[in-house]
Amino acid sequence: MVPHLSFIFFFLIPIIVASWFAGALFCFFITILAILSWTISDYLIAHGNIDVFSFLFNSTVHALILAYVTYLLRYIRRLLIRESQLAREDSLTKIPNRRSFYENGEVAFSTGNRQQLPITIIFIDVDNFKSINDVYGHKIGDKLLFEAAQVMNENIRKNDVIGRLGGDEFCLILLSADREHALMYAINLRNKLNERMLKHKWQTTFSMGIVTYAVTPPDFLRAIEDSR
Ligand SMILES: Nc1nc2c(ncn2[C@@H]2O[C@H](COP(=O)(O)OP(=O)(O)OP(=O)(O)O)[C@@H](O)[C@H]2O)c(=O)[nH]1
């Protein structure tokens, strides 16, 4: 009896690897290649002795299985990426949440310490935010926090770190920023925040606490606690 081995894993493995690690176009290409290879190998194994209907039927089923596996894996991958983004994002302001801020802060501090760079931590607090909620309502309070976070996010560089620590408290870490640079930056940021508030006719201001280290200290958690 001639052994008939199923080749499904042979075709599935490249699809699984591509679906998980490669871009959509490459993945599409690999899936088409796997479908064609499976169909051709079926044809060759039959030595041309095929029943056209069952050959077409089987090839279609194989194509559907491979396409569905690709779709399913891409979908699961997208979901996982989205989930991990959501776990790191503050749902209201869409900037990094406290947990993500602390993770990114560790990285910035370790870079700054390794390269002996200055570093600045800026704490930002919305003044009398409680009364904003009381006067305008929570919905406007939420919108205000969102707008303020957007202004901050629009005004940081790639290596800087931003986060909402909670409530109306935000924090920025400016890598390589010495005292003079940090002060200029903070004044400019505060003007931009005030402009945005004025645009919405929200009567509020922002308080900022600025701490600069001439050389980044090694312990981020300690630095952030000492700075508060
Ligand atoms: N709308 C809205 N309000 C929030 C949110 N998180 C916290 N708050 C409110 O923010 C307010 C913060 O109050 P406080 O910490 O006293 O801050 P404050 O009124 O600005 O006082 P100071 O910081 O001393 O100026 C509280 O009333 C919270 O209920 C949120 O996500 N949305």
TrEMBL record:
Protein name as annotated: diguanylate cyclase
InterPro entries hit by this protein: Diguanylate_Cyclase, GGDEF_dom, Nucleotide_cyclase, Rev_trsase/Diguanyl_cyclase
Record flagged with keyword Transmembrane helix: yes
Keyword Ribonucleoprotein: no
Enzyme Commission numbers on file: 2.7.7.65
Membrane spanning stretches: 7-40, 52-73
Highest taxon above the source species: Bacteria
Pfam families tied to this protein: GGDEF (PF00990)
Species: Halopseudomonas laoshanensis
